[in-house]
């Protein structure tokens, strides 16, 4: 029996995949530390910060896979055409909703 994942109101066949966010490590650097980007100057000016950063002091559990390093994702290889179209329709709707939210944020709403 294969894995299943629920997306929206529908169930889809699924497979395990390495988490894209942590690349299988189960942890990431806290975005409040490097979410706006760091330069080599940041590390050069504060060697202790560099040691802590690369030593994992600022790591947190990956919020995407909850620390597992892997997660279920839709398995399009075993989907019927109808299921695949349903998945794509849901993905399109989600993308459109995120675009609308971003436009509203830019407009100050």
In whole angstroms, the N-to-C terminal distance is 47 Å
Query: What structural class should be given to the helix and strand makeup?
Result: alpha+beta
Strand order in the sheet with the most strands: 1-2-5
What sort of overall outline do the alpha carbons produce when their principal axes are compared? flat
* Overall average pLDDT: 94
Number of DSSP helices? 4
Q: Tell me the domain tally.
A: 2
Give the biggest beta sheet: 3 strands, antiparallel
Strand fraction: 15-25%
Kindly provide the radius of gyration, computed on alpha-carbon positions and rounded to a whole number of angstroms.
Answer: 19 Å
H/E series, N to C?
EEEHHHEEH
| Low-confidence residue ranges | none
Question: What is the gist of this entry?
Answer:
The protein is of the alpha+beta class and 109 residues long. 41% of the residues lie in helices and 23% in strands.
Overview features:
109 residues, alpha+beta, 2 domains, three-stranded antiparallel sheet, 5 strands, 23% strand
What can you tell me about this protein's structure?
The protein has 109 residues and is an alpha+beta fold. It folds into 2 domains: 69 residues, no CATH class; 35 residues, no CATH class. The protein is 41% helix and 23% strand. The chain has 4 helices and 5 strands, in the order βββαααββα. β1 and β2 form a beta hairpin. The longest helix has 26 residues. It is flat, with a radius of gyration of 19 Å. The model has no long low-confidence stretch (mean pLDDT 94).
Q: How are the secondary structure elements laid out?
A:
Elements lengths: L2 E5 L2 E9 L8 E3 L1 H4 L5 H6 L1 H9 L3 E3 L8 E5 L6 H26 L3
Antiparallel strand pairs: 1-2, 2-5, 3-4
């Amino acid at each position: 029996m294969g894995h299943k994942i629920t997306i929206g109101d529908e169930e889809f066949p699924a497979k395990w995949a390495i988490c894209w966010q942590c690349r299988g490590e189960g942890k990431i650097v806290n975005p409040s530390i490097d979410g706006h980007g760091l330069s080599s100057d940041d590390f050069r000016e504060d060697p202790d910060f560099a040691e802590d950063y690369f030593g994992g002091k600022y790591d947190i559990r990956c919020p995407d896979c909850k620390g597992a390093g892997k997660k279920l994702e839709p398995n399009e290889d075993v989907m019927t055409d109808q299921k695949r179209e349903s998945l794509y329709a849901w993905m399109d709707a989600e993308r459109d909703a995120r675009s609308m939210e971003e436009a509203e944020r830019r407009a100050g709403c």
